[in-house]
């Protein structure tokens, strides 16, 4: 599964110059959506930041200023947003169906990075999935796969699980 996420992160933004984060860059939209999930429970943990940084650094081969620029651009865009539309419309425009499903898996990986998921994180991933056209079934399958990757024992279903 990590290989699938790796391919996904490599696929998006391939048309952008290496290290350069443009406002319409799909990578910025992905990082902003990750921040939306990370902020959903009111706390951005070090483990969530670390997981996001690890994925971005490894898959885009970004280091130093390039990595910081992309993460900062995504965080800033996420902080300025009043809703998910800007990011989800970028994602729908730039990613195919399989890539959008893999994005939901990535968002679940971020949600579980701190060892658990909150009802608010669950709701944010559900809303993003709906906006980018990922079915409830695919969303739940990606959540279950992320749960296995994180090796966490989930304490039950949250409202909204299909």
Automatic annotation (TrEMBL):
It comes from the Bacteria. This is Tellurite resistance protein. Residues 28-140 form the Co-chaperone DjlA N-terminal domain. Pfam families: TerB. InterPro entries: DjlA_N, TerB-like.
């Amino acid at each position: 599964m990590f290989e699938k996420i790796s391919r996904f992160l490599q696929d998006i933004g391939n048309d952008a110059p290496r290290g350069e984060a443009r406002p319409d860059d799909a990578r910025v939209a992905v990082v902003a959506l990750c921040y939306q999930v990370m902020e959903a429970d009111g706390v951005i943990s070090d483990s969530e930041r670390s997981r996001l940084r690890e994925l971005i650094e490894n898959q885009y081969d970004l280091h130093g200023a390039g990595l910081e620029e992309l993460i900062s651009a995504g965080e800033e865009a996420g902080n300025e947003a009043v809703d998910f539309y800007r990011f989800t419309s970028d994602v729908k425009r730039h990613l195919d169906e399989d890539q959008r499903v893999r994005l939901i898996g990535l968002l679940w990986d971020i949600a579980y990075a701190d060892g658990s998921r909150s009802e608010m994180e669950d709701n944010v991933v559900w809303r993003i999935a709906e906006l980018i056209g990922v079915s409830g079934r695919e969303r739940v399958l990606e959540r279950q796969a992320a749960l296995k990757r994180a090796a966490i024992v989930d304490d039950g279903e949250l409202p909204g699980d299909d």
